[in-house]
């Protein structure tokens, strides 16, 4: 019998985390389950910093980016002592279950706590990066794409006016989901992702040749390359300088950064977050433990937390092939 659930948001915040919190609280309320929310990710758990969450507390948050519970990274949880301490707090507060909304790092944190905690643990995938196995999409990804797209479209205008090359760096840590999707939707001439191999300074010919071909075919015009962060060891600005030098054409870099994490969640993220929040509570009531609530082919599914960080999920192979064909043409 589950009577009390603890929830927290951890790691990079993602638009839609609030919608997930709301869905958890409303679903739990229907079953007379108390919910408490820890502040600042696992830090709030270690410090017993929390608030009770009632339906009125989550009434008007579905449209807000960020997370009402705040998020953080927490170094202490990397130690066995930290994990033990977290479990002690959960037991002291008589929590029957813990729901962690975050990325695969946060899920590893949840698994560490599970070594010492008797209650149930559930994960909900919340990260703009979409780099979690066991779910087609993570909460926040769809919004991040639209935010990136809005900016790339604007850069296209100025790039076209000056007939410049632009490198636009998008987030993703070590994955290219955001870059591939936003790059395709923006009509970028090239997309560079870690999945395609890391570019080295001595080996950027493959990147320059299509630019030169485009110059020959259509004359001077704008040329946009979307670059996933961590694709070029010296950084995207250094890559822009290298291209300018090599081609004698002005090349500018725009690092989009944390703007991609903010903003009101788009409809798809609100719906996904609501579905996964509700499903997580229902599955806890059915006894699920050490699982992530994900969505595959539009159906809610459970996926073992332990497998969520295996990085088996691939970039859409159809889009990758198409993009590489048009870039090399
Ligand atoms: N191997 C681990 N053991 C224990 N806790 C971890 C581990 N990896 C990550 N965490 C916890 O999860 C937090 C968030 O992880 P991080 O990788 O930064 O973000 P995300 O959850 O978005 O992937 C970390 O700050 C840490 O508290
Ligand atoms: O906000 P920080 O700590 O600089 O972290 C930046 C990283 O967080 C992200 O925005 C989100 O990553 P996580 O969800 O895995 O934390 C990455 O795309 C980026 O590399």
From TrEMBL:
PANTHER family: ATP-DEPENDENT 6-PHOSPHOFRUCTOKINASE (PTHR13697:SF4), PHOSPHOFRUCTOKINASE (PTHR13697). Pathway: Carbohydrate degradation; glycolysis; D-glyceraldehyde 3-phosphate and glycerone phosphate from D-glucose: step 3/4. One of its GO terms (molecular function) is 6-phosphofructokinase activity. Keywords: Allosteric enzyme, ATP-binding, Cytoplasm, Glycolysis, Kinase, Magnesium, Metal-binding, Nucleotide-binding, Transferase. Its main location: cytoplasm. The lineage of its organism: Bacteria, Pseudomonadati, Pseudomonadota, Gammaproteobacteria, Chromatiales. It is found in: Cytoplasm. Residues 4-283 form the Phosphofructokinase domain. Belongs to the phosphofructokinase type A (PFKA) family. Its EC number is 2.7.1.11. This is 6-phosphofructokinase. It catalyses: beta-D-fructose 6-phosphate + ATP = beta-D-fructose 1,6-bisphosphate + ADP + H(+). InterPro entries: ATP_PFK, ATP_PFK_prok-type, Phosphofructokinase_CS, Phosphofructokinase_dom, PKF_sf. Its cofactor is Mg(2+).
